[in-house]
Amino acid sequence: MNPDFHFIDYFIFALYALLIVGVGLWVSRSKGKEKTAEDYFLASKSLPWWAVGASLIAANISAEQFIGMAGSGFAIGLAIASYEWMAAITLIIVAKYFLPVFVRQGLYTIPEFVEKRYNTNLKTILAIFWICLFIFVNLTSVLFLGGKALDTIMGLGDGTKIIPFMIGLALFSAAYSLWGGLSSVAWTDVIQVVLLVVGGIITTVIALDNVTPTGGAMEGLSTIYNVASEKFHMILSPDNPEYTNLPGIAVLIGGMWVANLYYWGFNQYIIQRAFAAKSLAEAQKGLAFAGFLKIIVPLIVVIPGIIAFTMYSQDMFGAQEAFNTGDAINYDKAYPWLIARFIPVGIKGLVVAALSAAIVSSLASMLNSTATIFTMDIYKPYFNKNAGNKALVTTGRITVLVALLIAISLANFLGSIPQMFQYIQEYTTLVSPGILAIFLLGLFWKKTNAKGAIVGVIVSVPFALLLKVLPIDMPFMDRAMYTLLTTIVVIMGVSLTTAKDDDDPKAIALDQQTFKTNKSFNLSAYAITVILAVLYIVFW
Fold this sequence. Notes:
Elements: H1 7-27, H2 37-42, H3 49-60, H4 63-75, H5 82-104, H6 110-117, H7 120-153, H8 162-180, H9 182-210, H10 217-227, H11 250-253, H12 256-266, H13 268-275, H14 280-301, H15 303-313, H16 319-323, E1 324-325, E2 328-329, H17 334-342, H18 347-382, H19 389-411, H20 420-428, H21 432-444, H22 450-469, H23 476-498, H24 519-538
Antiparallel strand pairs: 1-2
């Protein structure tokens, strides 16, 4: 183990682990009755708004952000924060326009909506797709990045401990989520999100204090702004070497919307928290709360990357030796290097606990959602239509174990990928535009039918791949937007030419009352919009 990680750090980390597992198991108690599917998969529909919002952020913020986004902060700068800040306004849109329709349907899963709006075949196709995405992309990448981070901080930093750390993270997340389901995941997330925000702020403040000889966080912030001023622009110019990752104004009016609307509106392990709320109003307030939290996330995940870049450019504290790997720069080492290098004994244990909280909460969320989709959309309709609560819950638990075993066995093959956050975003956008088109038209265009949706989703992936292999240098966000628009045209064309009636029989009836929201939500929406407008004006 790393000699810089002392006994007191291990002790604090162990206390955190015992607290999370203890709370998770305590919450999971069935109070003497058999746990139902609603208990296990939707937390008995009992979550208040603050638990919904906290759990959303805990599920979202993981190694992809702390490790991957900090690495992109090193390489790109504050512009990568668009994923976070635009997510805040996306949450408002989802809460007002998507969530009311979903809640009215009484859903367990997103594929369930597809079946009600289209047909069973399309639901099954998408259910299998999401299960594969969660296991082969999300779980594996979070496990790998998490193991890599802990190896840098707690291990020897040479990669020899990555697999043991990955196994440890997997067992940790399974220890309470396997038994308790979404109740355990959501309520422990409340603790996890407090810890990850506090730990993230501590890391940022201490790193800022060390970036200037005179010390002081505000002085450090001024230093990185002066030394790395090129890293504080939200909208990149075409001559910026990172323009292909964040293509200027298209971030605001183009492909970023594809990524965000797909992720926050139709991603099972995110939206499942809203399904578990006490009511629609509580769910909407929870999403607004999450929107406010998203505004502060760049402070704890992007600014540390810019600090690391500043130290690298000034060759402070041996940064160049630490980050140079052959002919390349290991961007994703930024956050764990800052922790290992600057966080003092005792506090280091707390900060590593915060990082682990981010990783474990996301793993638990992905596992629970994988189990929910497999159990409710694959197992029950195809293998045991008359399955009772006991069979459904048992199947969910078995699914969690199988998913973990597969992810662990594959995670180490990811190897060292520069800017893994961007890597994940790019390859997700091969499939997200087609799915987003299906949902948008299914929700808001009554003429959309199942044939159009199936043809559209089949066409979308080859079209996205074609744009990727064409001999033109097109940013992947632009490819995502073109794929979305093309898929919408295909779905509309097929639907219009194959429809027997003016409107599809399964079309959703919408009226003004559907989208009516209360005063507190409206005020939150206005406040988030104004804050984001100011941020983009200041850092344009």
